[in-house]
Backbone:
């Protein structure tokens, strides 16, 4: 069982370019999340999805969009990357209602130059 | 504004002794609290949690204490082992929809 996979592992991106970070889970979890981790700021929630077909905004949603077309996939798109989006991005999932434990992917290290 | 705070960026403890990691929160609506452990170049992994209706939860060497009146929780690790060396994040949620994480405490257990 892979759990949660993220791709790419790392990426260097020119400012202004569009980028999609991929996230796939094989646990049939209802809820999925995207976080960014920055030094001194911990993990901050970008967007979340409680179930396929629904999404919601977290603490820091500006500049990011998500979609949840099916249970397994939850891609995060940066429409026009800026240097302040340089960060490590983690995707996570949880079973949903009544279950608070989140399972995290290995992360994507993104550098916007 | 940070709703969940971990004021100690780092902590060093001798192997076999107790490690105490602290976390403070500001939102009284939080009803569930969790601790995660993170090794370098890996995603966080769930460690232990506690509901706001309890004041203590224990799992092996790990115990989480919740003081709602002080809006404070702590993680105790006894006895500490070198493999416990990692960054520990506390997190809090309201009805499990959104999770707020602290900034993390780097624990070093000295052999």
Residues:
């Amino acid at each position: 069982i892979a759990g949660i996979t993220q791709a790419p592992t790392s990426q260097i991106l020119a400012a202004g370019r569009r980028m999609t970070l991929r996230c796939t889970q094989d646990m049939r979890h209802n809820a999925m999340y995207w976080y960014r981790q920055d030094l001194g700021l911990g993990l901050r929630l970008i967007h979340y999805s409680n179930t396929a077909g629904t999404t919601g905004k977290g603490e820091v949603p500006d500049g990011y969009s998500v979609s949840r077309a099916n249970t397994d996939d939850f891609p995060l798109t940066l429409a026009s990357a800026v240097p302040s989006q340089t960060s490590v991005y983690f995707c996570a999932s949880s079973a949903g209602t009544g279950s608070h434990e989140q399972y995290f992917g290995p992360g994507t290290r993104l550098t916007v130059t | 504004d940070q709703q969940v705070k971990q004021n100690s960026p780092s902590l060093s403890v001798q192997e076999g002794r107790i490690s105490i990691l602290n976390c403070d929160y500001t939102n009284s609506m939080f009803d569930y609290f969790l601790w995660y452990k993170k090794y370098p170049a890996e995603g966080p992994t769930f460690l232990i949690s506690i509901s706001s209706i309890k004041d203590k939860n224990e799992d092996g060497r790990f115990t989480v204490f919740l003081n709602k009146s002080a809006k404070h929780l702590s993680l105790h690790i006894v006895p500490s082992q070198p493999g416990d060396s990692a960054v520990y994040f506390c997190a809090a949620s309201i009805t499990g929809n959104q999770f707020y994480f602290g900034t993390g405490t780097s624990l070093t257990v000295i052999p």
Summary: Chain B touches chain A at residues 2, 4, 6, 32, 34, 36, 41-46, 49, 89, 91, 93, 96-104 (CB under 8 Å). DSSP finds no helices and eleven strands in chain B. Chain B has a mean pLDDT of 94. The first strand of chain B starts at residue 4 and ends at 5.
